[in-house]
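Bit of a strange request maybe. I'm writing a small parser for structure token strings and I need a real example to test against, not something I typed by hand. Could someone generate the tokens for this chain?
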Amino acid sequence: MVRPADEELLERLKGTPLTGLSRSLGIEIDEWLPVASSPLPVTLRLTPGRHDVDWTRGILESLGGKRIRWISSSESWVMPFSKSEYPDDMSKKMMALLHETGRITRQEAVSMLPPVILEPKDGELVMDTCAAPGSKATQLAEAIPNGLVLANEPSSGRLNLLVTNRARLGLANMLIMQHDGRHIGRMPEPGVDGVVVDAPCSGTATTRKNRELWNTWTPKVGRSLFQLQSDIAHRAAQLLRPGGKMIYSTCSLDPIENEAVVCEILRKAPWLKLINIDCERLLPSLVCHRGIDDWPILDENAEVVEWNGALPKLPGLSESMLNPKQRGLEAPDLSYTIRVNQHENDSGGFFVALFEHVAERTPEGIARSMILHRELNREPVELARQKKNKHTTVQAPDDIVEAICGKWGIAKDAFTWWHRGRRVNLSNTLSYDRLYKPTVVNKKGDYWPGEEFHPLRVIHVGQPTFTDNKGIWRTRQESLELLRPHLTKGLVDIEEQTLIALLKGHTPLREEFAVTIERGSFILRCKEYLVPVWVAARVSLMLDDKEREILKMKLNIELEEEE
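Reply from user aminoacidic:
Good idea to test on real output. This should exercise your parser:
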């Protein structure tokens, strides 16, 4: 989705520090700059497992979408337009409807790389340390439907985006927690099986969606983030079990944020080793380059500073940011890492490194954060449980679970049931077995008893699925796809004309409804469509406007009205 750029603009951008950074990396500026300054094409993931996935696929094809060839582990698409240049209002509206109703997830193509390269296995416990807005975390969750993703986000404002994206996709295998990535809480042994550290970065490879970077970036920006990036990755490495794998990634071109951080990670976490990313197998046809080990020092204008053996006096520069040759150190094989440039794949830019916790380097068999540094010469002390309030997530009481199962015909053992306020959330068993049930030992050898998530600061577990409405547990619209295979009660079959009338705004009296229906919460079933309703004096649809529009399209209601 590359559009011709204004020649005057290109000439101005050639003089920016950002272009100087790319030039110092050997990138061909005349090829790179027109793409790096153009809008990104809209790219997305198709949500797997939905009953109407073929319908969604057909819509994407009708809008000119094509499968992304180099992503084989998920169904990903590129559209023939950018976010700022939709061909018409209908295309813009359709893309918004598909995303907001959970049928697709709009996500930059290169942002899909970390989950693809990590290759999580179903049944594993995987953590995303910097998860908001949730594109990678939800991608991980879709890849391991019987696993569990710990999606962590420190910022309260951004946390809401993460919660929203989890909810619209109806994901039961995600736990959302809030920690500073440098200080993620302790958890039960043996630790997590995999980690994605998509670190906060300067975004120098995101110029196609953040044009202000051309005016604001200088080399000191990347240097200011080096310590934060290293510390977040180090904490993740401490929580990774022996044999587990970790991704470190950024959307930056700057070696200070990429290869220099990789060297620092390996220095601080010698139990890790770099793994050579198999691009040919994992990313067929993606044009990528291997990481470098001889990056230059740049001044604030991004001009190369000649190395004379002494650390230049530049804002934020430290010895840890020098390349291994300048430091006189034996370099790790940084060619195991990969770089993606914007102009070679019509994408954003990206950097990815893959690590493994070498099991032989940690014979204790548990994550490094869980190893006591000194022998405990006393009986361990049971630590105080967390004080509970109305927002604390706890296991749902048996009477609530039995009421819901009795109403909707769901097998109790199909999920793990959680209670928070007026809501009941559903998750798979890993949230209980790996995180809630076990005890957690602190660094002194004392322990928090099991049957709670503390000391993890857990905000949400699984998918909010039922809400208490005057003593009746009604289903939530966004959870219908999750419940679809499990519902055996509470379903009321109707004819298509009845559904069409409701979608057109008809709210019939209960006594006048097309079929006999009791008061309370029910799901109307018409062919493959499931539609929640609330029945009081009248029968009212419990659908938001976006899902109503989708159903109207499927049933050709607008076409019928025009005729």
